[in-house]
Design goal:
Distance between the termini: 33 Å
Low-confidence stretches: none
Strand content: under 5%
Oligomer: single chain
Largest sheet: none
Mean pLDDT: 93
Helix content: 40-55%
Number of helices: 10
Number of strands: 0
Structural class: mainly alpha
Length: 254
């Protein structure tokens, strides 16, 4: 399906591949549309709060503290979302390396349903990936899309298991045809279901959309596990050095 958003990198200081611009358009369409559990309005509000979180004074104090639980106070927020959702977004954006299972369990016990949590994570990471790209280019961030009307599908997939992560995930042997798109099949020596690919599988539309974005900004599976395959203009070593550096700076450990 052709994207309805118009994102262009024609004015970027470097040449940007057209597939990146096209995928970013699709990503903005994805954020704006009703999801599996959340309305388009709620999803765009989550994207806006994701951007806003970096300037939160409470989050900055917590980040500097020995423990985030040592600092009490109220988040600086846009006022469009419940307090528990604000806490979730701000912690994921500003201090993901110290997220614990007890913190996640507390949010779930406080009323955030597990599928809602996963979908919100999906919106957060879609937003941060595109924003990180424009920030790196030194370009203004794209205006967030207007939310699209409609109802969430509210379809809970079957086959979820709870023995891998803090929230239920769906292994490839239980995945339907749509979800199988995120799991590499018969690609070199690829593992069937790396945890990073399985993480958002409880909401398949988020997982599938995110890895379309990931595979364009990073590497598709056939290049990740086949040394000879390299669709990029820089070497595999340069790709991995860059990816490792970004992961380290972002505290991305899994």
């Amino acid at each position: 399906m052709a994207p309805t958003m118009n994102i262009s990198y024609d004015q970027a200081p470097y040449d940007v591949r057209q597939d990146i611009a096209h995928t970013h358009c699709n990503t903005w369409d994805h954020i704006a549309a009703p999801g599996t559990w959340l309305s388009g309005e709620r999803r765009v509000a989550i994207a806006a709060e994701t951007r806003h979180a970096a300037g939160c004074a409470l989050c900055q104090e917590r980040k500097a503290a020995l423990s985030p639980y040592a600092v009490k106070g109220d988040h600086d927020d846009l006022g469009d979302l419940p307090d528990a959702v604000i806490e979730m977004i701000h912690r994921i954006v500003t201090d993901p390396g110290r997220i614990t299972q007890s913190w996640v369990d507390g949010l779930i016990a406080g009323g955030i349903a597990e599928p809602d949590y996963v979908e919100m994570v999906g919106v957060i990471v879609h937003t941060m990936c595109v924003d990180g790209f424009t920030d790196t280019l030194g370009m203004p961030r794209h205006a967030l899309p207007d939310p699209k009307k409609g109802e969430p599908t509210r379809i809970l997939p079957s086959g979820a298991e709870t023995d891998t992560a803090w929230l239920p995930t769906i292994p490839p042997e239980n995945a339907d045809e749509t979800l199988l798109a995120i799991y590499p099949q018969n690609v070199g020596d690829s593992p069937n279901a790396p945890h990073v690919r399985r993480a958002m599988s409880l909401v398949p539309s988020e997982a599938v959309s995110f890895f379309k974005l990931n595979d364009v900004q990073y590497l598709p599976p056939e290049a990740m596990w086949n040394v000879e395959v390299n669709p990029r203009s820089i070497s595999k070593s340069q790709v991995e050095l860059t990816a490792s550096r970004v992961s380290s700076l972002n505290g991305c450990f899994y």
